[in-house]
Amino acid sequence: MLKKIFTKKKNKTTREVIVLEVDASKLSSLKHSLDAIIKREIDGVLIRNFLSKDEVEILKSGFSDVKQEELTQYDEGMFLYPKAFSGIDPREQISDKKFQETLVDSEERWKLFSRRFGVDFHSKVTRVLSSLSRRRRIDLIKGDEEIGVYTPQTFRYLEAGKGQFKTHCGVAFQQEFKPFYDRLSKICTIRDQISYFVTVQKPQSGGELILYGLDWSEAERLVNENSVLIDKKGKEYNLLDEDQVKCYKVAPNQGDLILFSEGELWHRVSAVVGDVSRLTLGGFMTRSKDDKSLKMWS
Questions:
Q1: With bands split at pLDDT 50, 70 and 90, how would you rate the model's confidence at 91?
Q2: Contact residues for 75 (Cβ-Cβ < 8 A; gap 6+)
Q3: Fewest beta carbons less than 10 Å away: which of 164, 210, 237, 279?
Q4: pLDDT at 9
Q5: Number of domains in the chain
Q6: Measured between alpha carbons, how far is residue 128 from residues 23, 45, 163, 240 in Å?
């Protein structure tokens, strides 16, 4: 049964966050929901039981065999595998030749991904995403002359007691990692990018995804240790004050897949509490320039 989830209605100053929830067995009820996210008619979709318990355990076991030296540390308590943004520092201005070599390395790693981790997550998620988006093709992003690929999905590991993902949005990343996004913008429409991930390991506590009822276009400045947003008129929005800023909080269960408007919507992942780390697998997607396909990267 399709359910619409809203935050509790209080006298707040920001808009409501709208996320639709459905079981994986009822996906036909979410037809065109990706287009609704792109048009900002809704903010996201939560698909319960996208992966089976067996598939989750296989992925979890596969990740446990990843060596420490294979992980890339993004922030304190946060590790990625494979390297995000095709394994380079996206803030670095690099030559076309070096960038192409990075995509070739990325393609070699990606060819082994499903075999190494035992679940063809990519094929499964692309079928579902296509069905939710007017049957658009779901494409890997390839390098010049079809050589090399951008890594489409990565594991994100938030260490127990340390890991969190501070307040951010895709448009802010596009400014912070401008050299990378300048390349990407030649291929696809980056402004309305969508994030998607499946929870492989759920922590004991914390590790919630928190979507705020504020877009980048409404408030661009983030201050006070990522807890306050300021709009163009100087008005402050305290993200820790739920009486002022509406939000949607969810801790997806293992096997659940969530998609949301990552480009404009400010969001974060709360600190992981307890002895169990948080592990997810996913990436980003957006429309091609001709709007006939969705392009994926991580």
A1: low
A2: 165, 166
A3: 210
A4: 45
A5: 1
A6: 13, 12, 29, 35
Which residue shows structure tokens 């980048």? 216
Summarize the confidence of residues 124-148 as an average pLDDT: 89
Task: Please tell me the distance from the alpha carbon of residue 188 to that of residue 193, in angstroms, as a whole number.
Answer: 10
- Bridge-based pairing of strands 78-81 and 272-273 is unpaired
* Host H or E run for residue 173: helix 170-176
**What is the side-by-side strand order in the sheet with 236-238?**
221-223, 228-230, 236-238
SS3 (DSSP) at 70:
helix
> Does 10 have pLDDT greater than 50?
no
- Backbone phi and psi for residue 145, each to the nearest 5 degrees, phi listed first: 55, 30
Domain of residue 65, CATH code: 2.60.120.620
Whole-number Å distance between alpha carbons of 72 and 113: 16
Q: What share of the chain is helix, strand, coil (3-state, %, to 5)?
A: 25, 30, 40
Half-sphere exposure of 217 (CA within 13 A, CB side): 5
The widest CA-to-CA distance across the chain, in whole angstroms, is 55
Burial level of 240, CB count in 10 A (0-12/13-18/19+)?
Answer: exposed
Token readout for 66 is: 């990843």
Range of the domain at 120: 3-297
Does 8 score more than 70 pLDDT?
A: no
Tens-digit pLDDT profile for residues 27-80:
988 888 999 999 999 999 999 999 999 999 999 999 999 999 999 988 889 999
Number of C-alpha atoms within 13 angstroms, CB side, residue 56? 20
